[in-house]
Specification:
Elements: H1 2-31, H2 37-55
Helix pairs in contact: 1-2
């Protein structure tokens, strides 16, 4: 139960880190076709994955 709570907490922290980038990307996509959309999404995903990996490094890999 505690592990699930911590995983959800890390997920929320990761999302908070990129929320402004996601909001900006969404706002742009509402009005125009975005050049490099895939690259922007990949950068956001890499940031989230790096944050999660760093936050979970003390846990066993099969758990995180």
């Amino acid at each position: 139960m505690v592990a699930t709570f911590r995983c959800n907490e890390m997920k929320d922290e990761a999302l908070d880190r990129v929320k402004s980038q996601l909001d900006s990307l969404k706002a742009q996509s509402d009005t125009q076709i975005i050049e490099g959309f895939g690259k922007s999404c990949s950068e956001i995903m890499n940031e989230v994955c790096n944050f999660f990996s760093e936050s979970a490094k003390q846990y066993k890999p099969e758990i995180s």
